[in-house]
Amino acid sequence: MVQNILTESELPLMVVRQEALKHNVATMAAFARDHGLELAPHAKTHMSPEIAAMQLEAGAWGLTVATSRQARAVRGFGAQRIILANQIVDPVGLRWIAAELERDPEFEFLCFADSRAGVDILRAHAPARGFRVLAELGHPGGRAGCRSVDELLGLVGYIEQAEGVTLAGVAGYEGALTSADEVRKYLAQLQEAVEYLRVKNPILTVGGSQWFDVIGRDLVAVQATVVLRSGAYVSHDDGFYRERTPFNRVDGELRPAFEIWAHVLSVPEPGLAIVGMGKRDAPYDEGLPIPKRAGLTVVKMQDQHTVVHGDGLRPGDVLAFGISHPCTAFDKWRTLPVVDSDYRQVGTLTTHF
């Protein structure tokens, strides 16, 4: 008989709800397919071979990473097409990528560039078949990326004349923008940039966690392969992404897959409880954990403790919490039990951060 994992495990414990995980993978794959988009999920969210396999089996075009170390890991997960959605200037990482491209002729790798200096670094480490490059367009106040279409087209001209690199298309990231109007204006610039390219079957890749509904509408006619790099959807959450998911605006839903369970350790004052989980166990950078029991509020997290306001708690009580921000939840745990609706363990996820 399979035991309820919550009664057989030491707490705190973060679990993954199997039904929600499977639902989210299928839902996002269907959205991309129905809107003529490709999906290259951002593996930096989970860094899990088990989830990567689910995403690839659901039809993912490839996997996205942010660093060469992550690229090395997802190659081990079985990815044959990788987007490194970042500038890469690390010589050690570039040497490994170049060697992997030489070793496996079927391996496809793309990375971003937003400057001539960055392109020159790629050229200096390029394998015989070169690096495929996506010219990145940013926006004022954003992180990386050329700050105008004219600047990007100047970089495109430089890439086209350079040996060791091949232009594959254009990249952008809209996730830092705060309104649909801002996103539409930015997407229009990306589409304008693509129209100037002298590239057969260009790629246009965008972020796609908070605004994929706008992307699905506004880029429907662009003459390019549009690739979403959505990541947080796979587990969703009860906080940051619950409030921001495009499924609040269009048909469909994502379901929170994470729960963390912990004991009440102390009730030192009326209405104040100390719970035995902390910053090493649950994310806190984009919102504190969300109690599943009504009437409770998390007000502070420390290394090993969480301060909860609410009545009716006693030492030894077991509480469940949802999380906010999946990207800093997965990295807290090297193994995560996957549970069914009765909290029986039906699988295990491993993470490789």
How do the helices and strands line up, and which of them pair or pack?
Layout: H1 5-8, E1 13-17, H2 18-34, E2 38-39, H3 49-57, E3 63-65, H4 68-77, E4 81-87, H5 91-103, E5 108-113, H6 116-124, E6 131-137, H7 149-161, E7 165-172, H8 180-196, E8 203-206, H9 212-218, E9 225-228, H10 240-244, E10 258-269, E11 272-275, E12 290-291, E13 297-301, E14 306-309, E15 318-322, E16 335-339, E17 345-350
Parallel strand pairs: 1-16, 2-9, 3-4, 4-5, 5-6, 6-7, 7-8, 8-9
Antiparallel strand pairs: 1-10, 10-11, 10-15, 11-14, 12-15, 13-14, 16-17
Helix pairs in contact: 4-5
CATH-assigned homologous superfamily of the largest domain: Alanine racemase
Order of helices and strands: HEHEHEHEHEHEHEHEHEHEEEEEEEE
Largest sheet: 9 strands, mixed
CATH architecture of the largest domain: Alpha-Beta Barrel
Identify low-pLDDT runs.
none
Q: Provide the number of structural domains.
A: 2
What this model shows, in words?
There is one protein chain. The protein has helices spanning 5-8, 18-34, 49-57, 68-77, 91-103, 116-124, 149-161, 180-196, 212-218, 240-244, and strands at 13-17, 38-39, 63-65, 81-87, 108-113, 131-137, 165-172, 203-206, 225-228, 258-269, 272-275, 290-291, 297-301, 306-309, 318-322, 335-339, 345-350. Helix 4 (68-77) packs parallel to helix 5 (91-103). Strands 1, 10, 11, 12, 13, 14, 15, 16 and 17 form a 9-stranded mixed beta sheet that branches. The chain starts with a helix and ends with a strand. It is built from 10 helices and 17 strands. The longest helix is centred in the first third of the chain and has 17 residues, at 18-34. The chain is α/β, with parallel strands linked by helices and 353 residues long. Pfam families: Ala_racemase_N, D-ser_dehydrat. Belongs to the DSD1 family. InterPro entries: Ala_racemase_N, D-amino_acid_metab_enzyme, D-ser_dehydrat-like_dom, D-ser_dehydrat-like_sf, PLP-binding_barrel.
